Every structure is written in C-alpha cells, then in structure tokens.
Amino acid sequence: MKTISKENYLKIIFSREEETGKPITTTYLADKLNVSKAAITDMARRLAAEELIAYERYHGIRTLPKGKKLAVEVIRKHRLWELFLLEVLNMNWSEVHDEAELLEHTTSDKLMNRIDKFLGHPKFDPHGDPIPNRNGKFPKTAKRMSLLESAEGKKYKIVRVNDASKDVIDFLSKIGIELGSEITVKKILPKNEGALIKNGRRLHSISGNIAAALFIAPAEKGRKR
Amino acid sequence: MKTISKENYLKIIFSREEETGKPITTTYLADKLNVSKAAITDMARRLAAEELIAYERYHGIRTLPKGKKLAVEVIRKHRLWELFLLEVLNMNWSEVHDEAELLEHTTSDKLMNRIDKFLGHPKFDPHGDPIPNRNGKFPKTAKRMSLLESAEGKKYKIVRVNDASKDVIDFLSKIGIELGSEITVKKILPKNEGALIKNGRRLHSISGNIAAALFIAPAEKGRKR
DNA sequence: CTTAAAAGTTAAGCAATCTTAACAATAAAG
DNA sequence: CTTTATTGTTAAGATTGCTTAACTTTTAAG
After folding, report:
1. Do A157 and A193 share a domain, yes or no?
2. pLDDT by residue (tens digit) across A92-150?
3. Contacts of A110 in chain B (CB under 8 A)
4. Contact with chain A for residue B102, Cβ under 8 A
5. What ipTM does this complex have?
6. Which of B156, B160, B166, B198 could form a Cys-Cys staple with B216, CB 3.0–4.6 A?
7. CATH number of the domain within which A134 lies
8. Which of A176, A150, A103, A92 is nearest to A126 (CA)?
9. A8 touching B (Cβ < 8 Å)
C-alpha cells in the first residue's frame, strides 16, 4: 500500500541516488528522515517486499523502476506546489517548502495536472530544480561542465559556450568541439581545475576556464531519429 | 496528537450534532466512516481523553469546545478548497469533494488564509454551505422557516418576506411581525403544515404558506449594542 | 413489566511505523 | 592482518487505527 511515509522514503532515496549514483546508506536516511536507523532497516524490508527498492543487508538501497516512478511523481507534485504557492498564492519563499512537503502526498494526479496547466507547464520550480512532466520525464538541464563532478562517464551535448574570446573558440575548434557536439565526460577535477573529455575517439584535457564556459546537457538516449 | 483520522471523526461528529442537536451514536459514525462499531468506541475513548469530545458509555458523543474548534477548522478548509478547485482550477463538480477531503488535512492555516483571500473571503461554498471565517464564525444563513424543523426553541430574525400579497402582509402586521423582528420558533410542523412562533409574549400559529414565505436567520447572541 | 432486537462495548489480535538496547558486520587505522 | 570505530541489524515493545467475535446494555414491542 502507498503511504505518506513510504513516499517520503522513496523521494529521498531517489534524490540521493541521482546525486551520488551509489547505494543509499541507512545512516543517511535515518538522518534525513529524523528516525532511528532501526526504522530504516525496517522500512527497507517493506519497500523491498513491494519491489520499490532493491535492498541488500549491510549494503544499502537502490531504487527499482516502480519506486523510481513513485518518487518522481512525488517530486513533481512537490515542485509544482512550490511554484504554485509562491507565484499564485504569493506565499513567502520560506514557507513554501514545508507546505509543499505536506500537500505532495494528498494531491491526485488529476489535480496536479490542473495545476500544471494553470501554471503553463513550467519546467523549473522556484529553486531552479527541474519539474518532471506528467510522464515522469525531466527536462534536460544544462549545467556548467565544471560543476558536474557527479556525472562522470556519461554522454553530454554542448548546448552553450559562455565565452566568445578568440582563444577559447580557437581551442575548441582545434579539438573539434562546437555547439551541439556530443562528448563523454571522463573526469571533472574539483575546484574548477579542469576536465577530461572524450570527443569521438580522442581524449582531451580541458582547462578550468573552459570547463566553466561550457554548458552541457545530458545527451538523448535511445535510437537516433 | 492531531491526526487525519481524528479530524475526520470530529468533522462528522460536529456536523451531525449541528444537524440533530443530540448526542451522536456509535452506529451512525461507524456507518459514515466505514469502520466497525468497535473502532468508534475505541476512538471515542481517545478523543475523550484529549477533551475533544464528551463521551458517556452507551450514551453517545458530544463535542467539547476544543473538538468543535478543530472540526470547524477542518470544515472551513474543506469548503474553501472545494470552491477553489471548482472556480480557480476548473475541476469538475464531481471531483471536487473527494479532492478537498484529502487536502483539508494537510493545509496549514496560513495557506488556507491565502486561499480565502484569493477567493475574496467567500461566505458559501459551491453547495451553498456556509464557510466559517478564520475565527471559526459561520455567516448567518437565512432559511425558509418551513424547512427549519431542527431549530425549534431558538431565537430568529425575520430577514426576508418572500410574498407581497395583501393577505400575507396584513396577517403579519396584525400579529406584529415585520422585517427585522425577532421571534422564537416554538414548533415547525412537518410537510409544510405551518408553525408556532412566539413574538414577544404572544404565541401565534402560522400557516404553511406563510412559514414558507418567511426567511429567518439566527438572531445574534450576547449583549445588544 | 418482560423479553427479544438493536446498539454498544470489550477482548484479542493485526499491520504500519516508530523506539531503545543488544548484537553483528564492515570499514578504517595502525 | 588484526583491532576498533562505525555502520547496520535484530529483538522486543509502544502507539494508532483498525478487525472479528463474544458479551452487555439499552430500547422497543408486546
């Protein structure tokens, strides 16, 4: 059965997994949810029984497709509510989060779609976080390459080059990169000290400067059209 | 502690008490809430322990001030949400009730006041039911005297006379009744067969016709100003 | 007034979500 | 590679809100 508690667990598990790419620990969840670690283990068993998560004793939690879907629905509701409360009802920035935290669990999909429509199908909430659409798809979001440590190993598309200086342009054209190029991020050094990317078969080292100028968005998966 | 379940119990207990003026029975609640009678007894003990209701074994439930206050808050939220969903979000008449049933328990007073303001402090919901204001006061509602069986013994004010025929006007003036008069309802006969009212010290018998033409609203309580 | 039907209560138990305390596994440090 | 600190699990128990079944009180009918 779907409960408020379970929705909250899944929401946090999902978000954390997106952030780290690693299994979520008991301690992290106990902290975030303000409950004992025993409570986490307990719930983990129940969520696993419903195939919402994969849970391996002593080795953390991962979401399964069903759990992911539920989590995304809750996140969608949360973000739409935040926007709605802020923009339509003129609530304060500071109040909006807690309010949405409550409403997100008692809002039907139908109502949520009404609100979505009312707001003009927004893609981002007041914090700039992406709002998944009614099918659970997140809008592609472009970020500075220099800030993308978490996403190493994945394919990205260059969507903006935030620097028009000759040096930068020249360097990029020299290594065969232009707007729309698809590259693979191999390594992002912390503190904006550059990056390692792969363009086709060639591996290139990028300075911090340039990594900060390049805005990249996840490349489409699946077959090309 | 305040829970969704308790709010629902109180809401129904309060409404039923307003309607009948009598203690609420276990069977009635079990029916309304779709739970066993044992569950009602159980909850009654818990609500009584919190002084939300007065509960006497085998003799039903009455609300206490604290419970009344809570119930009115929930009713206010319910009705405001219904209006909001219908008018602002264009939801269907049929969907609005169930949706409000959920939202009413997860909406802060602050948010509710925003919605109230957004709607222009409405006094009635889409069903015509009165919406209590933020202090829990219901707007005075005028009703045909012929339909007010429930309210015998109380003081009312004549707020509308929905019949301009000479006979009616003459009769009323003969017994000393005009717009604004305060009378006490002594007896309302069912099937619109008339009423017995007291105007000052005099007792008058009213025909069904006239009882249907007189719109009355609860008289103000407390000291006159 | 008695008695059967209706209404209400109690007892035992279950599921969900917690808690604390004791114990077990893993990871980190030497 | 052992030892210890950290992390995680289990067991037992509490609370909320239910259920069913057995029992008690009240009400209504004769």
Report:
1. yes
2. 999 999 999 999 999 999 999 999 999 999 999 988 899 999 999 999 877 788 777 66
3. 91, 95, 99
4. yes
5. 0.82
6. B156
7. 1.10.10.10
8. A92
9. no
